[in-house]
Amino acid sequence: MHELSLATSLLELLEERALLDAFSRVQKIVLKVGELSGVSIPALRQGFEFATKGTLAEGAKMDIIEPPGSGWCFTCERTVPLRDPFRSCPYCGKSAVTPTGGMEFMVVELVVL
Ligand SMILES: [Zn+2]
């Protein structure tokens, strides 16, 4: 499961930071998960809960910001909303849309003890 390995990498990142910044608990983690990132948020939450059992991040609250997907249409020559990276332009129906936003997967903020 893709989301479980993401959750495990997140935990590794938190453990590394805990050593650097000398904290022992993560109370809250804020993530940015773009609409086009391909990450299932329910699966990520579940994976995170599972991966963090018995660790410094057990029970941490997870807030997720979901930037909407967008892309550049070469036909309309403008940025258009994009719900799916393989979807065509909602205005002209042509498929020449290059995703430009909503692909993020990153930690934005940590609240630690
Ligand atoms: Zn278009």
Automatic annotation (TrEMBL):
One of its GO terms (biological process) is protein maturation. PANTHER family: HYDROGENASE MATURATION FACTOR HYPA. The keyword Lyase does not apply. The keyword Metal-binding applies. Zn(2+) binds at residues 73, 76, 89, 92. Ni(2+) binds at residue 2. Belongs to the HypA/HybF family. Involved in the maturation of [NiFe] hydrogenases. Required for nickel insertion into the metal center of the hydrogenase. This is Hydrogenase maturation factor HypA. GO terms for molecular function: nickel cation binding; zinc ion binding. Keywords: Metal-binding, Nickel, Zinc.
